[in-house]
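Thread amino acids onto this structure.
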C-alpha cells in the first residue's frame, strides 16, 4: 500500500450544549470551528446531538425546540464559519425526517457552505429507541483525499461498524459522542483505542462537557493513532479543542506491523460440542 495525500489536520471539540436551544448551540459550534481553524484544522468533530442538546426527556416533551430540518436557517452561523475558514464540521443533531420520524443524525457542513444530513445513527442506546428511527446504512466522507467513517457513541461499541468503514477505504473514524462519568468514561478510552488498533486507523471522538440529560459528561475528546495510542486528549471539565495531524506514514507503519486487515479472514469451520456432566 502506498498512499500519497497531504496530511489532514483534525480537531476534536467539546463544550456544554444547552438542551433545546438550537440557536445558541449553533453559535457555540461556530465559535469552536473558528477557533479550530485558527489552529490549522481542516476538519472539526463535535459531539452527539450537540446542536439539539443531549436531553432525551426534553426531546420527548418538547421535540420542536430540539429538532432541526434539512436547510434549517438556524444553521447559517455554522455554515458561514465553515465557508469563511474553509473548514469542514461534523456535528450531531436531532433531525426531523419526512413523515414525522426523527433521527439522531450527524451533519457534515462543507467548505462550500452546504450542510448535509450525512448519517443517521444505526445503533441506538436503549433509552433512545422510542425517540429515533435507526439509520439503515453507514457513511464515509472524503476531505482532502482522506476517506473518513462517521459514527456515534453507541455505534463505536460494535466492532463491525468501524471495520465496515475501514473496508470502505477509511483511514480514520469520527465519533460524535456522549460519554458520561463512571463506566462510560472507561469504555470511551477502551472503545476508541481498540477500534483504532484492530483496524489500524485513526479514531477521533468529540464528547460533551458539563451536565446532560444522561448525567455529567466526562469530556476528554481525543484523537487515537492507528496503533491505538492517544495522540491528543482534551480536558475533562472545560471547553476545549485538541488538534492532531493525520499522516500517511503513520497509517502505513501501523499496517506493516499490524497485519489484521491484509490477512485472509479465518474461514468458517465445522465445530464440535463437548458436553460435560
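Threaded sequence (277 positions):
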Amino acid at each position: 500500500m502506498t498512499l500519497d495525500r497531504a496530511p489532514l489536520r483534525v480537531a476534536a471539540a467539546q463544550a456544554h450544549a444547552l438542551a433545546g436551544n438550537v440557536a445558541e448551540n449553533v453559535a457555540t459550534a461556530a465559535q469552536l470551528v473558528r477557533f479550530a481553524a485558527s489552529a490549522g484544522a481542516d476538519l472539526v468533530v463535535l459531539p452527539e446531538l450537540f446542536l439539539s442538546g443531549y436531553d432525551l426527556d426534553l426531546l420527548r416533551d418538547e421535540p420542536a425546540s430540539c429538532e432541526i430540518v434539512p436547510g434549517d436557517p438556524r444553521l447559517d452561523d455554522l455554515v458561514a464559519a465553515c465557508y469563511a475558514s474553509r473548514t469542514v464540521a461534523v456535528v450531531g443533531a436531532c433531525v426531523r425526517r419526512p413523515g414525522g420520524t426523527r433521527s439522531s443524525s450527524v451533519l457534515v457542513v462543507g467548505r462550500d457552505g452546504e450542510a448535509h444530513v450525512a448519517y443517521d445513527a444505526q445503533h441506538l442506546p436503549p433509552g433512545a429507541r422510542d425517540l429515533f428511527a435507526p439509520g439503515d446504512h453507514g457513511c464515509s466522507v472524503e476531505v482532502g483525499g482522506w476517506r473518513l467513517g462517521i459514527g456515534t457513541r453507541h455505534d463505536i461499541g460494535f466492532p463491525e461498524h468501524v471495520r465496515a468503514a475501514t473496508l470502505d477505504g477509511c483511514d480514520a473514524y469520527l465519533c460524535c459522542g456522549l460519554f458520561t462519568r463512571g463506566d462510560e468514561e472507561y469504555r470511551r478510552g477502551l472503545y476508541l483505542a481498540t477500534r483504532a488498533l484492530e483496524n489500524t486507523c485513526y479514531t477521533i471522538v468529540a464528547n460533551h462537557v458539563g451536565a446532560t440529560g444522561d448525567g455529567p459528561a466526562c469530556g476528554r475528546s481525543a484523537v487515537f493513532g492507528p496503533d491505538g495510542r492517544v495522540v491528543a486528549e482534551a480536558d475533562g471539565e472545560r471547553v476545549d479543542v485538541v488538534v492532531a495531524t493525520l499522516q500517511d506514514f503513520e497509517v502505513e507503519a501501523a499496517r506493516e506491523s499490524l497485519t489484521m486487515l491484509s490477512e485472509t479472514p479465518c474461514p468458517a469451520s465445522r465445530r464440535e460440542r463437548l458436553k460435560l456432566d
